[in-house]
Design brief:
9 helices, Rossmann fold, 291 residues, 13% strand, alpha/beta, globular
Length: 291
């Protein structure tokens, strides 16, 4: 028996790419899976694969940015399997654009799917989990681009919002049996392929540089763990999985040194000259080192 035996799990954007790898892996570990994708044929293809391998799955195609559909997705899971134990908010879109060439349409599409879609599905899933009284696990999908990235400001903002939502929901639900975490995955997918034209500039502006990207399935065991009962006690965390590296991502924090005083115009200028200018935080994805 796998660690997800009998669990009922809905995975958004799982008709292809990294989401499909989550669906396949969770099914292999015994989960009953609702495969969601905006592409109906893609969702049904993954369902067929899972069933052919001996697993249980149903498709629920639709647009997660529609708040009502978030409820439909949860209802589909409950109707098919009698319950919902887990939700993976994987569906996302990526549109490149710097501050001088970003379009309103692209930004809104990312916020609608990546952020609003995450909220819509989690809203209905958490309510169902609490009403059933049996608990569950919400796994959101964030991104290293939340730290800032060239031509990915809009995408990073949508994923930074997901991170903030993860922290907030985990705090709100800490006294319940529903836990909320996120993953920050890395994989070679159609989405990452669209970013290759920007990678040279991006790599020059950050400490963490990727020369090759791992296949999507390398991320699936982390998602499966967070969905399983083995992760009870893990809450409000972003788990980074990048090939052979596994770690937590730091939460936003107040950086030292913290100066105290009466902050007049002169005192502020002196503080930056003498202390703060040299303590500026690194831009882009970096490692937070223990002192």
């Amino acid at each position: 028996m796998g660690i997800l035996q009998g669990k009922a799990v809905a995975i958004t954007g799982s008709g292809s790419g990294i989401g499909a790898s989550y669906a396949r892996h969770c099914a292999q570990l015994g989960a009953r899976v609702v495969v969601n994708d905006i592409d109906k044929e893609a969702a049904e293809k993954i369902v067929s694969e899972i069933r052919a391998a001996g697993g249980e799955a149903v498709s629920c195609p639709g647009d997660i940015s529609d708040w009502t559909f978030g409820g439909d997705l949860v209802a589909a899971c409950v109707d098919a399997f009698g319950r919902i134990d887990g939700l993976v908010n994987n569906a996302a879109v990526l549109r490149h654009g710097t501050i001088t060439d970003m379009t309103e349409r692209d930004l809104r599409s990312m916020l609608d799917v990546n952020t609003i879609g995450t909220v819509a599905c989690a809203f209905h899933a958490v309510r169902a989990m609490l009403d059933a009284g049996e608990g569950g696990s919400i796994v959101n999908v964030s991104s290293g681009s939340q730290a800032g990235e060239i031509a990915l400001g809009g995408y990073g903002a949508s994923k930074a919002a997901v991170a903030s939502l993860t922290f907030s929901w985990a705090m709100e639900l800490k006294d319940t049996n529903v836990r909320v975490n996120a993953v920050s995955p890395l994989a070679e997918t159609a989405m990452s392929a669209s970013n290759k034209g920007f990678m040279e500039k991006q790599s020059a502006s950050r400490e963490v540089v990727y020369t090759t990207l791992p296949p999507p399935q390398t991320n699936a065991p982390v998602v499966a763990f967070l969905l399983s009962d083995a992760s009870i006690g893990i809450n409000g965390q972003i788990v980074r999985i990048a090939g052979n590296e596994l770690s937590f991502v730091t939460h936003p924090a107040i950086a030292e040194p913290v100066l105290r005083g009466e902050w007049t115009d002169t005192a502020v200028a002196d503080a930056f000259r003498d202390k703060l200018a040299g303590a500026q935080q690194k831009m882009g994805l970096t490692y937070a080192r223990r002192h």
